[in-house]
Amino acid sequence: MKISSNFDSGNINVIECSAPGNIRLSINNDKNSEFYQWFHFRLTGAKDQLCALRIENAAGAAYPNGWENYQAVASYDHETWFRVSTVYKEGVLTIQHVPETDSVYYAYFAPYSYDRHQELVSTAAMNDRVSLEVIGESCDGRDLDLLTIGEEGGEKKKIWIIARQHPGESMAEWMVEGIISRLLDDEDALSRELLNKCVFYIMPNVNPDGSIRGHLRCNAKGQNLNRDWHDPNPAVSPEVYHLRNKMDEKGLDFSLDCHGDETLPYNFIACFEGVPELNQYNLDTAYIFGNELEKTNPDFQNEKGYMKNEPGTGNLGMSTNLIAHRFDAVAMTLEMPFKDTVDSPNPKTGWSPERSIKLGYSSLDALRTIVERL
After folding, report:
1. Do residues 320 and 203 share a domain?
2. What are the pLDDT digits (tens) for 248-258?
């Protein structure tokens, strides 16, 4: 019996693995950071045995409240993921499961691999309506991929969609995969209409280093990218530095920043109520988007979410606030759960890649209703 995590997005430390009922583990911190919560590892040699995998430092995780009512995901083939019995008690997170094969993966959420990311952008780039640009390099020297979908120029609205500033929030790239897939569907009338009116700039993974390293929130230098937008330092946050510069170059009318929330069991948006010189028209447009998304996808709701900042108190280090202020544009952060949606649960999968993809589809329906307001 063995536990390993030396692979793409792997993260676990083995304290003891002496018997199926006595597997003691801990999660490693993001590099140069106190953040940790993401885990992803493989267990081999335990077929048909009841295993108790105890993550002993769960209480010190970035969001310990996120363990309440949480169920870990498991997979035999690294493609189909399902929820398994998980209990958080006295600071320890215990996964209980009887593997059906001698190889099983466990993770905080279904991973979105770097191989899949490369396949996503390369396949999209084969489409005549798509161009792929490497706008810079990450701290570890990886390409920062930007897809441009649609013809630039004229009076077209400039739509930006980004994901995985926080690398452990893999549901965000699953959602973006859904958006790209629908935009490139020649049989989808709504997508054709949107591409007649808009050009899309899509960055599916802003933080490839953190994704591969198995981080929760930080890049390879230990920077929380979604706090570095006000004055990004290219030495430690090149990802945001290059992305913000490209936004300055291209212009921006609408921004959707895709994330995941460890604690709240809902899909929701967070807007820019706290920015200086708030543009109420833009904020109302963002609210219309949220209302329309709730109509098109019952997995989404607008009642629960983050507390709204008082005017002038918003953190301009965060992308949504900075973008709304810098470009006088409609901007929002869309949050998805690591757990399940309380109002529309699926006990077998919880919130999942498939549901994230479908939410991506629905976001284009909502976008269509506000394009003329941008």
Report:
1. yes
2. 999 999 999 99
